[in-house]
Design goal:
The protein is of the alpha/beta class and 659 residues long. The chain has 29 helices and 18 strands. Helix 5 links the parallel strand 4 and strand 5.
């Protein structure tokens, strides 16, 4: 079966995951049958889809007509035979119990057409074991969406022992057609990728508290404000439900052994039914203020211990050929919201240091969870990392960054903010990469123009990565230095002698808009939203926005944008003068690159002095006019002037060389 052959999708289970997956499929244009065991369950799921689509329309993320059309594609059904009669793909999302799922597949095998592909949304259970209930194990795989499916971009596509390559290819294509990013899990292993990292991390956090090494607050401060995760370990456990992670851990313990022994602290919470936010109390008391993670209680020993455990899990997945380091990093960033992947974090911390930490803990406790995986020890002894570090020429190495992609083509350097899992938010590390990239491109004579965009179609940049920058408590000095760092980095882009174009698709907010303000020209899609929301946080734009924005749109408009802290659509920002052009949603890359290439064909020396004169003129009119006059004289001595005159006389396009 090919992707084009898929017309009808049946989703079994109308709970949170089931109705979310059904909504995603309907939005992608598929006919969807939503099935559950009784009318109440399936109707509730259908109602939730209707509510969610209404919210998306209310927020202008789709039109009323698109919402209505998506809802019309969903048919609620109770009878299983009716639900799967015409199904090309069945996605099962029933409760996460092996016996329940096996019972479902026994009935499904008898009812579904022979060509139907089965995909289970299990988050940890064996794909192989489930597939063997059916008579089509080669047409069976895992398709693990993340909660909530409408918002989360990742889908883990998991192979069972019998899954055909054609089935994996088909389901990956299906996920992409739904607007998701599939990551292939090559072998069936408990927890797959994301939960195999997150659940042992939660368990280790619990052991740290159970053994009186640190407090809940210290662990969460470390994970949230030092490591930079979206939530503290215990905060996340409470949010998801302590029982959910605990049951996954129990399954890992059963299949993988004592290295995954659940911490007694987790068992106590489950037994007392203090399961987190949903019960009002977990590691935090939600009837008494809820989560309050201190920003200044991080501990280096806790960080090293957590990173060591994550590194060991990464090594186990790579060693067993479940996934490579790149896939692991991509999955955990997309599915867990990590600022960097766990393999990258481990490389940065130093594998030798982490192996030493694990060895010390193994000697102290005797616990099997600290037994170093052979592959991790081999890398450490060879002084290597998960991502290697060798190869490449000097120029490509200079343009190799963790948070950016840089591609040079036809004299245009295309710089992509590459943190789509965090809406391309700006971290301190991204600023360092951007600063180095601007330096390298400014010195590269082959580069004549720079195009700056954001990865994905959700955001150019949604602003500062507040979570990763929130440490420091009440001390103002780090905040002052952070402001200066952003001002200096963005200032480099503004002062670059080469024309700079920014292409905006999606959110361009806060620090993202301040970065865009440093470009010479800005082009955006119709769906883009721009704004300076800092006043909503009790802040002000701190990376040059108070100065640059008023230069572009005028003082009155700048005050309106900053004081109201509202989001503005692209057409409005074009009317205000911030955007030079608004294009159709699918045309940004082509239009922005065409504009950058046209500027790259311009006269480099004239462009350089034009920018300098205009920038100096903002500060001091007389000084700007003096720069203009001196530059005018210099340009009369250039070969570019002669080329321009000759091209004009010959009615041809000039070929400027910057001489």
């Amino acid at each position: 079966m090919e992707l084009d052959d898929i017309n009808s999708i049946t989703v079994l289970g109308a709970g949170n995951m089931g109705h979310g997956i059904a909504e995603v499929a309907a939005l992608a244009g598929y006919g969807v049958v939503l099935r559950d065991i009784n009318e109440e369950f399936v109707q509730n799921g259908y109602d939730q889809i209707e509510w969610s689509l209404g919210k998306l329309a209310e927020k202008d993320q789709l039109s009323e007509e698109e919402a209505d059309a998506a809802l019309e594609r969903v048919t609620p059904v109770v009878d299983l035979d009716e639900a799967v009669a015409d199904a090309d793909v069945v996605i099962e999302a029933v409760p996460e119990k092996m016996e329940i799922k096996k019972d479902v597949y026994g009935e499904l095998e008898a009812a579904a057409p022979d060509h139907t592909v089965f995909a289970t949304n299990t988050s940890s259970l064996s794909i192989t074991e489930l597939s063997e209930v059916t008579e089509r194990p080669e047409q069976f795989c895992g398709m693990h969406f993340f909660n909530p499916p409408v918002r989360m971009p990742l889908v883990e596509v998991i192979a069972g022992a019998h899954t055909a390559d054609e089935t994996m290819d088909l389901v990956e294509d299906l996920a992409e057609s739904m607007g998701k990013t599939p990551v292939r899990v090559r072998k069936d292993s408990p927890g797959f990728i994301v939960n195999r990292i997150l659940v042992p991390l939660m368990n280790e956090a619990a052991w740290i508290v159970h053994d009186d090494v640190a407090t809940v607050e210290e662990v969460d401060s470390t994970t949230k404000f030092d490591i930079g995760l979206p939530m503290g370990s215990f905060e996340l456990a409470d949010q998801v439900g302590i029982d959910v992670g605990y049951h996954v851990l129990e399954y890992m313990h059963e299949v993988l052994g004592d290295a995954y022994e659940p911490c007694p602290l987790l068992a106590e919470k489950v037994e007392s039914e203090n399961l987190g936010k949903k019960t009002g109390e977990g590691f935090y008391d939600y009837d008494d203020g809820g989560v309050d993670v201190p920003t200044d209680a991080a501990r280096e020993d806790v960080k090293r211990r957590l990173l060591a455990v994550m590194a060991n899990e990464v090594a186990a997945l790579v060693e067993k050929d479940v996934a490579d380091a790149d896939a692991i990093d991509r999955a955990v960033m997309l599915g867990g919201g990590f600022p960097d992947g766990p393999a990258k974090m481990a490389d940065d911390a130093g594998l030798a240091t982490l192996v030493e930490t694990l060895d010390e803990l193994r000697d102290e406790t005797g616990a099997e969870r600290y037994e170093v995986v052979d592959y991790l020890r081999e890398l450490a002894e060879a002084d290597e990392g998960f991502h290697g570090g060798e190869g490449g020429d000097e120029k490509s190495d200079a343009l190799d960054f963790d948070n950016l992609r840089v591609e040079i083509d036809d004299a245009v350097a295309h710089v992509v903010l590459d943190r789509p899992h965090r809406l391309n938010t700006i971290s301190a590390d991204l600023m360092d990469d951007l600063s180095d990239a601007i330096d390298a491109l400014s010195d590269d004579d082959e580069v004549r123009a720079i195009l700056l965009t954001g990865a994905g179609d959700r955001a150019f940049s949604a602003g500062a990565d507040v979570t990763s920058m929130a440490g420091g408590g009440a001390d103002p000095i780090p905040a002052v230095e952070l402001s200066r760092k952003g001002q200096q980095t963005f200032g480099k882009l503004e002062e670059c002698d080469k024309p700079v174009v920014v292409g905006i698709d999606g959110f361009c907010l806060g620090g993202g808009m301040e970065l865009a303000a440093c470009a010479d020209l800005r082009i955006a899609t119709e769906r883009s939203e721009l704004g300076q929301p800092e006043h909503n946080l009790g802040l002000l734009p701190g990376w040059g926005g108070t100065v640059r924005l008023q230069r572009i749109v005028g003082t009155g408009r700048a005050k309106e944008i900053i004081f109201t802290a509202e989001r503005y659509d692209a057409e409005t920002m074009a009317d205000y003068g911030f955007l030079n052009r608004v294009v159709d949603n699918g045309d940004l890359e082509a239009e922005a690159m065409e504009l950058a290439q046209s500027l790259a064909g311009g006269p480099p020396i004239a462009q350089r002095y034009t920018k300098r004169a205009m920038h100096r003129g903002w500060e001091d009119t007389e000084a700007g006019l003096e720069v203009e006059a001196q530059a005018f004289g210099i340009l009369f001595t250039t070969d570019d002037l002669m080329e321009g005159v000759m091209a004009f006389s010959s009615d041809r396009e000039p070929e400027f060389e910057g001489k």
